[in-house]
Amino acid sequence: MTTRTETAVRLVILLAIGTMAGAAAFTHVHDLSVTHGQPDWIGWANAVAVELMTIYLGLELRARRRTGRPVGLVGSLLVAFALLSLAAQVAEAEPSVWGWTVAAVPSLAFLALVKVVLSNAPAVPPAPEPDQPPGDWYDVPEQATTDPEPERPADPVPPAVPAPAAISAPAAVLPPRVVPSNRPHVVGIIR
């Protein structure tokens, strides 16, 4: 199977699970809202708010982690909305362990799908640290030669002043030297 085919199959599975799980979760939240006295359109509004808020908070959590911003509040809200969706699934179920388990499957599948998709971040190489010299400057230590330089014949023209070498460290700035004077201090006017 080629990578392109595998990606297409994964996308189809993702859309099928997302559509079915989302439809079941939306329906359970809608039905629970209507059963407890809300008009039909408010039931759908509640379903949209609960289910899409979970997806939005997952995206927001990923964006905040990527930029290094705090995620505490967003994470807490994500858990709260996921539990609200799960509670709606369970409340609509037959009051038995299997009824609750089967009713929770769409919500749990939807949340697992969102988690897998949102945690699939591409690998990014670490950025170089600012104000750091490239690593290859220090890879090869300079070798000191002990052989004396060969004598060169004298040039008829004096060589130009060579350009200063790169400064490896800033020059130290010392305070001015204060030398005590041996003269006596005279107070008053001297004529």
Task: Quickly describe the structure.
The protein has 191 residues and is mainly alpha-helical. Helix content is 54%, strand content 0%.
The rough form would be described as elongated
CA distance, first residue to last residue = 109 Å
Helix content: 40-55%
CA radius of gyration is: 37 Å
Beta-strand residue percentage: under 5%
Helix count equals: 4
Q: Report the biggest beta sheet as strand number plus sense, adding barrel if it closes.
A: none
**SSE-based structural type:** mainly alpha
Would you identify the regions where 5 or more consecutive residues have pLDDT less than 50?
A: none
| Secondary-structure element order, N to C | HHHH
What is the total tally of β strands? 0
Rounded average pLDDT: 75
Describe this protein's structure.
This protein has 191 residues and is an all-alpha fold. The protein has a domain at 23-118. The model has no long low-confidence stretch (mean pLDDT 75). The chain starts with a helix and ends in a 73-residue tail after the last helix. The longest helix is centred in the N-terminal third of the chain and has 33 residues, at 3-35. It has helices at 3-35, 40-67, 72-91, 97-118. It is elongated. It contains 4 helices and no strands.
Which helices and strands appear, and what pairs or packs with what?
Elements: H1 3-35, H2 40-67, H3 72-91, H4 97-118
Transmembrane segments: 7-29, 41-59, 71-91, 97-118
InterPro entries: DUF2637
Organism: Micromonospora antibiotica
